[in-house]
Write a sequence for this structure.
């Protein structure tokens, strides 16, 4: 199913930018769509019990919303540059779409 998240991320970023997405935006969107599955790496490397990877915090939408609020506040405060905006408007929506 991980492969299915990539085309949807690409389509979402193209929809957000109306077909004018840069390569950096597309890369950020693709990383955002796979970010909730980063727990699979932890599960494969460190976890010895059989636990569903959907039980980790990375699969809870509220955790991504909280991260989005923090990053959004940094972006709006002016302390962040273009990268913070990219995280708020491209990475986080794709993580939530996951």
């Amino acid at each position: 199913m991980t492969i299915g998240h990539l085309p949807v991320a690409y389509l979402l970023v193209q929809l957000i930018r109306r077909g004018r997405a840069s390569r950096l935006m597309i890369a950020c969107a693709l990383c955002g769509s796979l970010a909730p599955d980063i727990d699979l790496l932890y599960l494969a490397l460190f976890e010895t019990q059989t636990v569903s990877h959907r039980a980790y915090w990375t699969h809870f939408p509220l955790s991504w919303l909280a991260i989005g609020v923090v990053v959004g506040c940094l972006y709006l405060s002016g302390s962040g540059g273009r990268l913070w905006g990219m995280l708020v408007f491209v990475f986080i929506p794709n993580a939530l779409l996951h």
User: Anything to note?
Assistant: Residues 39 and 63 are 14 Å apart (CA to CA). The chain has a mean pLDDT of 78.
